[in-house]
Amino acid sequence: MNQSNKINVAVAGATGYAGAELIKLLARHSNVNVVALAHSPGTDDAPMSKFFPQLAGVCDLMVEGVDAILDCHDLDAVFLALPHRAAMAVAKPLLARGVKVIDLSADYRLRDVAVYEKWYEVEHKDTGNLENAVYGLCEHYRDKIKSADLIANPGCYPTSVLLPLIPLLKAGLINPENIIVDSKSGATGAGKKTSAALHFCEVDESFKAYGVFSHRHTPEINQELSAAAGKEVDVIFTPHLLPLQRGIQSTIYVGLNQQNLPAPRMPGSIEIQNAYEAAYKNEFFVRVKPEGATVEIKNVANTNFCDISYFINGNKLIITSVIDNLLKGASGQALQNFNIMYGFNETEGLI
Q1: CATH of the domain at 211
Q2: Total structural domains in the chain?
Q3: What's the pLDDT tens digit per position in 224-242?
Q4: Which residues contact 301 (CB under 8 A, 6 or more apart)?
Q5: Which of 143, 146, 190, 317 is buried most deeply by CB count within 10 Å?
Q6: Cβ contact 281:287 at 8 Å
């Protein structure tokens, strides 16, 4: 493909962990031309390779304020890896110009404005575009993603929870009540901002729960699970901080629903496996293991894969899933969305 035929893209928030991952992925995408990079407020202009020296010779573009992207009129698509609240201010004028936007923040994920404003404690100032945003869980919203101009890239924890649960809820195999989600994430999930709680000496050789009953991914998980179940779902979600750089494991506890198969009984591994097979047999980036198999963060780190396993005991089901929070939980899924939007192979730039 000639350089002139490539899709011109920009990345705002390029100096964060997710932004840097995007640059690495885009650098090996054969159909992309990165034309502009922007940093978050409070960061000085500098070449990308100064922020991430490993990118020297890969991407040496100057990273400037977001005005550099807003003033660039040779753009087809923009990835927004900006903080929550900041992304909508950039997305709105870009969308008005006909630029496609893939937003990695939470600004367009929650369909109910009141819910967003409650959990993020700020007024939503782009409700017009919110109505047209497509939730970018690729394996379940692909048809809508194909024609979207605005993608709300899912959060990392929600991705690790929704991929294993949605097929089972749609099949009616599990009880939508009393779902318990116990998730653990590496420290990059909190972003690159300075925080005493994320210093090496605070994280190393330790393990803790945080955001109990208050984590902002809770309403996002509830929204998508409710849509799958056809009724309101309110999970108990507890995130934990692991002394790792990257990766998420979610352990999910649910009750099985009695089935008539033809005699009344609880579903077993055949029904669970069949539901997953129906949902993911053609999905390259979702790997479902047999009952009782082990999934581990190390086997998905630095990839866009989600690995899922499950365990059955009577009417109880425990599911474990693992993803890389920076890839399938952020930048990798964003690029997968981009590939779907433009009709490219979904693995382009990702393997």
Answers
A1: 3.30.360.10
A2: 2
A3: 999 999 999 999 999 999 9
A4: 246, 247, 324
A5: 317
A6: no
